[in-house]
Amino acid sequence: MKMHDCDLLVIGSGAGGMAAAVTAKHAGLDVLVVEKEAVYGGTTARSGGWLWIPANPLAAREGFSDSREAGRTYLQHEAGNHFDGKRVDAFLENGPAMVDFFEQNTAVKFVLGPQFSDYHPDAPGAMTGGRSICAEPYDGNELGEHIKTLRPPLKEITFLGMMIGSGKELLHFFNVTRSIVSAGYVAKLFVKYLRDLTLHGRAMRLTNGNALAGRLAKSAFDLGIPLWLEAPATELLRDGDRVVGAVVETKDGPVQVNARKGVVLATGGFPHDVERRRQLYPHAPTGQEHWSPTPPGNTGDGIRLALPLGAHTADEYPNAAAWVPVSRVPWKDGSFGTFPHFIDRAKPGVIAVTRAGTRFVNEGNCYHDFCQALVKATKGMEGEICAWLITDHPTLRRYGLGHVKPFPVPIVHQLANGYLKRGRTLEELARECDIDPAAFVGQVAEYNRHAAQGQDPQFHKGSTAYNRYLGDPTVQPNPCLAPIATGPFYAVQVVIGDLGSFAGLKTDEKARVLGENGQPVEGLYAAGNDMASIMGGNYPGGGITLGPAMTFGYIAARHAAGIAA
Ligand SMILES: Cc1cc2nc3c(=O)[nH]c(=O)nc-3n(C[C@H](O)[C@H](O)[C@H](O)COP(=O)(O)OP(=O)(O)OC[C@H]3O[C@@H](n4cnc5c(N)ncnc54)[C@H](O)[C@@H]3O)c2cc1C
């Protein structure tokens, strides 16, 4: 077998792996990154690119008064019985330092989400803005030839392949028919996109997770870190109790990679491991009743590699993954895409009902909470676990719904392929979707009775800062409520998916994988979703997977390099 020597082997090229690689190389280690797929960036490249870091330096510069203590209080409340004080403290201490390190030394730059509220803003220690930071948009030309192997963004959340940044940029898209400034802004971006498409065959203005993955990769390439593509790690190598490398399959055959300082597992968790899903996802009794927008290569390899060394996964978490409601988008070739519903549920004039015709949750709550409520509400019901997002004509054309875009983008195609259901009356829509008509008509009437006054006595939609952040501030008195009154009426079906798994490998506060008797396995680290989430199965804020992913990648690298972390 061929051999390759390095100090640190990083397995996986998402945020966890690349943060570890860049930090380690900067600290003087000889680093190799191996990636199973033909493209790098993993789920990170498909993501929103938000990192949740309490008391981060960007917020401090903007005058937010946040603190590590407040972050700890909030996380203790959120994780409950699964709170792991040591790892949380390591995160809170190193998170801001990690952000400083990347901003000062690499191509990774961030912008602050000043109004991006924590997801449970009324809990102790929560903030209503300033903890979430997003990767700054990036010019793909900076990556040179490497742009060709950057994983593209999730097709379903682009506009014809063009990436749309969150926050202000997204607002311009919503306002394109209402404001000259927004129309001009969008037109300029679209012309640039068409030019990029002609010259490069893809969007070159990277935003969100694609910008984060691009910026991390650029930082790695600038430091001369080799990245092997189509190179899955298949086995860990040991010398006594210490991990000293791995076998990596390549196009030219297997290579024995010897890693003097250790190995970082960062293969992105197990969202596509059907057997593990069967064991841990309550809504997926065969493991198949689940739709994940994460890339197909995330099949739990890191976990499988570590288990023979006595490692354990956090199967006791109340939620084994970060749930998100998704709709299945039919493509022309007969395949289905997966659209994650982050924003539309909170808009005024949108509600969600089960097949029973009734609402079950504050629709503006976070995706993770929405899905948990859906599983609860459909317990004992026949058929697949699903809900319908419901709206009327003016609302659909104003905000779109799921993969359906706002006016002036036509809707005929989505009506024809069955993605969007329509009824001239509420009864007709209910029959179209196999929803109980009488209960549904009664439910909409009950909702409408209070919506015009900005009230929702049933579920209090619009009652939290997070709800309102995703609503429409021009709608008053409640930016999340408007009657569903003007037909035709529309529905999109949602089922349960995930953004990544939570029940990863148990580690200590240095990101070392714990083996027999809870002792660290020397030379073996886990970062990103290969590491058990420090959120204990809960979802406290925007960026709670990428923030810890980069922070524990940074911690692992510094520990391997012998720097106190
Ligand atoms: C649409 C969407 C939006 C999201 N938005 C956000 C957000 O804004 N903020 C947030 O915090 N989270 C978000 N998430 C979740 C977040 O993207 C993931 O939790 C995060 O990217 C996981 O990072 P990672 O480094 O663990 O894994 P990944 O980024 O998935 O990278 C893992 C890599 O390892 C590779 N790999 C797998 N097996 C092997 C092997 N055997 N050998 C070598 N390589 C291997 C995979 O191919 C992959 O490229 C979002 C997810 C989605 C789908």
Features:
31% helix, 6-stranded antiparallel sheet, 565 residues, binds flavin-adenine dinucleotide, alpha+beta
Question: Would you write up a description of this structure?
Answer:
By secondary structure, this protein is α+β, with helices and mostly antiparallel strands. The chain has helices at 15-26, 57-61, 68-79, 85-105, 168-174, 180-200, 208-222, 274-280, 301-306, 367-377, 393-399, 412-416, 426-433, 437-451, 465-470, 546-560; strands at residues 2-11, 31-34, 50-52, 110-112, 132-135, 138-139, 205-206, 227-228, 233-239, 242-248, 255-265, 321-330, 336-340, 351-353, 387-392, 421-423, 489-501, 512-514, 520-526. Helix 1 (15-26) runs parallel beside helix 16 and helix 4 (85-105) crosses helix 16. The radius of gyration is 23 Å and the shape is globular. The structure holds flavin-adenine dinucleotide. Flavin-adenine dinucleotide binds next to helix 1, strand 17 and helix 16.
